[in-house]
From TrEMBL:
<keyword id="KW-0694">RNA-binding</keyword>
<dbReference type="InterPro" id="IPR012337">
    <property type="entry name" value="RNaseH-like_sf"/>
</dbReference>
<protein>
    <recommendedName>
        <fullName>Integrase catalytic domain-containing protein</fullName>
    </recommendedName>
</protein>
<dbReference type="GO" id="GO:0015074">
    <property type="term" value="P:DNA integration"/>
</dbReference>
<dbReference type="GO" id="GO:0005634">
    <property type="term" value="C:nucleus"/>
</dbReference>
<dbReference type="InterPro" id="IPR041588">
    <property type="entry name" value="Integrase_H2C2"/>
</dbReference>
<dbReference type="InterPro" id="IPR036397">
    <property type="entry name" value="RNaseH_sf"/>
</dbReference>
<dbReference type="InterPro" id="IPR050951">
    <property type="entry name" value="Retrovirus_Pol_polyprotein"/>
</dbReference>
<dbReference type="Pfam" id="PF17921">
    <property type="entry name" value="Integrase_H2C2"/>
</dbReference>
<dbReference type="InterPro" id="IPR001584">
    <property type="entry name" value="Integrase_cat-core"/>
</dbReference>
<dbReference type="GO" id="GO:0003723">
    <property type="term" value="F:RNA binding"/>
</dbReference>
<feature type="domain" description="Integrase catalytic">
    <location>
        <begin position="150"/>
        <end position="314"/>
    </location>
</feature>
Length: 448
């Protein structure tokens, strides 16, 4: 039968150290009674008719009669509002033994367990005395769990999108239409963020959003996320398909998930600012602007903007984020070639613009082709289809096919109001031709 070596929990050196502790000049205990006073209190309680010799004895006698009593020839503190039972007045030389005894009775319980017992049964001991003794118990020291954690190792990423951290932002308190969650993916190397709206936090929509991230930035090496169930199932299958390693951490941990956890606060602040600027609660409509704002602002860790680190230039994004340039339609779009004319000023050759309206006269459209001019007026009670082919090299040739609206009855075939009239006028330096046609049949081809 195996035996366990006995250990003395409180050696003599601990007892001697405690006596030095309570007798030091820095020790303060208002409930402690000095040994000479303890003897005088005992005498006055045992003989109340004894007259005091001086004023000090008179004060001690008053306290002895009104606050103390003898039980079995031992001095006790009388009950009061906070302590309904009499409490034994512990002499100074017995404090260590009383604390050690109660500690062993409770099988080496901690301070929070031992102190209520000491406070209820004894007078003259304070909480710090109990804590001092228990901390120096040899058995408790050997059985105390190790609370020192291993030093944290910094994560080092050598290239962009080698490691990303993913987390969900809960927006159920203020949903945008059907969107209640935001998937936040942040690159550990370049601090680049991507935000995706989600209707739920199930693994399937998360996997679909992450597939879009893979499509844009290629498969990663490591994905770091918490161990919640939404990052299992379909999401885990997607990562295994592309050979991506997943590392699960404790949720809402500032040490392991600190990068994306802090970035979530930035995203929420940007969302609040966007809602105030646009007077709207539909934050899903502004998620693109929010993402651009986060990726174009300077990051303290890399000392530049994430897009500048990844793409070497972020000027176009900054210009786009200018609210005045974005909201003012009069400001022109910058062209790739500064010598080229504006987009809306370029001529289309050839191009035909025809407007056909039901029950109203269509506005005449004008097309200029070289030295020719074509005016077309179409009058119809319903929509018509016009197909034109123009060959400007040999004069002006126009082929028109007009399809009248569908007729529901034979009587409508002879209804004049449903007919289509087309007037075509071609002017050139050589000849001028005008043709007008009215049709009540199903289709007509007119060649000029």
């Amino acid at each position: 039968m195996a035996t366990v070596e006995s250990i003395n929990p409180f050696p003599n050196d601990v007892r001697n150290a405690f006596q030095e502790y309570i007798t030091s000049d820095t020790y303060i205990n208002r409930d402690r009674i000095q040994p000479q006073h303890w003897q005088r209190i005992h005498v006055f309680v045992d003989n109340p008719t004894l007259k005091p010799d001086n004023q000090t004895d008179a004060n001690i006698k008053y306290q002895a009669i009104h606050h103390f009593e003898l039980i079995d020839r031992k001095l006790y503190r009388q009950p009061d509002a906070h302590h309904p039972d009499p409490r034994y007045v512990v002499p100074e030389n017995e404090i260590f033994d009383v604390i050690a005894t109660e500690h062993l009775k409770l099988l080496h319980a901690g301070r929070n367990k031992v102190w209520p017992v000491i406070e209820r049964k004894y007078h003259g001991i304070k909480r710090a005395d109990v804590e001092w003794v228990i901390k120096r118990c040899k058995n408790c020291t050997l059985n105390r769990p190790v609370t020192t954690k291993a030093p944290l190792e910094p994560i080092v990423s050598e290239r962009a999108f080698e490691r990303v951290q993913a987390d969900l932002i809960d927006m159920r308190h203020e949903p945008s239409s059907q969107y209640k969650w935001i998937l936040h993916i942040k690159d550990h190397f370049g601090k680049y963020s991507q935000l995706y709206t989600l209707k739920s936090k199930e693994s399937k929509p998360i996997a679909q959003a992450f597939a879009q991230f893979i499509m844009a930035f290629l498969p990663l090496k490591i994905v770091q996320c918490d161990n919640s169930k939404e990052f299992k199932g379909a999401f885990f299958i997607l990562l295994r398909k592309y050979g991506i390693r997943i590392i699960n951490r404790k949720p809402r941990s500032s040490q392991t998930q600190g990068l994306v956890e802090q970035a979530n606060g930035v995203v929420e602040a940007k969302i609040r600012a966007w809602k105030m600027d646009n007077s709207s609660t539909e934050w899903a409509d502004g998620l693109v602007e929010i993402t651009l704002a986060i990726n174009t602002q300077k990051h303290l860790t890399i000392n530049c903007a994430p897009v500048e680190l990844l793409f070497r230039d972020c000027s176009t994004y900054i210009d786009w984020l200018d609210s005045q340039k974005r909201k003012d339609p009069a400001i022109r779009v910058l062209q790739e070639d500064s010598n080229e004319a504006l987009i809306y000023a370029l001529d289309s050759e050839p191009e035909l613009m025809v407007t056909t309206q039901s029950n109203v006269l269509a506005n005449p459209q004008v097309l200029t082709i070289g030295h020719s001019r074509v005016d077309i007026d179409i009058h119809s009670q319903s929509h018509s289809q016009v197909i034109m082919r123009i060959s400007p090299k040999s004069g002006s040739e126009i082929n028109i096919r007009i399809t009248p609206p569908i007729r529901n009855s034979p009587e409508q075939w002879f209804d004049i109001e449903t007919n289509i009239q087309a007037s075509i006028k071609v002017e050139s330096s050589i000849t001028t031709t005008t043709a007008t046609t009215a049709t009540a049949i199903q289709s007509t081809d007119l060649v000029i």
